[in-house]
Amino acid sequence: xxxxxxxxxxxxxxxxxxxxxxxxxxxxxxxxxxxxxxxxxxxxxxxxxxxxxxxxxxxxxxxxxxxxxxxxxxxxxxxxxxxxxxxxxxxxxxxxxxxxxxxxxxxxxxxxxxxxxxxxxxxxxxxxxxxxxxxxxxxxxxxxxxxxxxxxxxxxxxxxxxxxxxxxxxxxxxxxxxxxxxxxxxxxxxxxxxxxxxxxxxxxxxxxxxxxxxxxxxxxxxxxxxxxxxxxxxxxx
Length: 237
Prior knowledge:
With 237 residues, the protein is mainly alpha-helical. Helices cover 81% and strands 0% of the residues.
């Protein structure tokens, strides 16, 4: 009987040891995502060589580690029907971005790369997985809505101002949510704290401009949102 129990326990341990760790997967995705953030940042700056290098680094990790080591899903993604298809899709997007960059179409490559973020967010959302990047990306989405608002002296009115104030409220909430969900290691990081203050400061500038009811100041403040966000994103997002 003791021998039977021992064999059964051994089998359980063997099964457990062969399971795929979410922490390992998440850590490896983080390695690829660090290169991805640089690729997004540099492509937005039209830096062709830096974009090529960053995409190549992402591809190396994604192909050499993610696609090779995670042919089946960790437990947290056990219900994901499109596991392999999603990971392969991300690899294909990176390949497309690399090809577009080689053609010198850097801003087009930036738009292609954005889809990788969407694919990862979709994968996590479908499986109830939340990581710090989710909160950074949520801020980015609302920020893009604000930046897409046309602001001129001719179209400035109370309705447009009111709409921007509502969007500012959402942006403010998402910035606080981002800060609240930062891992402890980041909260203790001096550089992260400085960049977070920069992001919060860009929101304050927009709030002040709206309070002053000055369309030119509002337009300038809206233009200042992305640089503040990008500095935090490329390093810690």
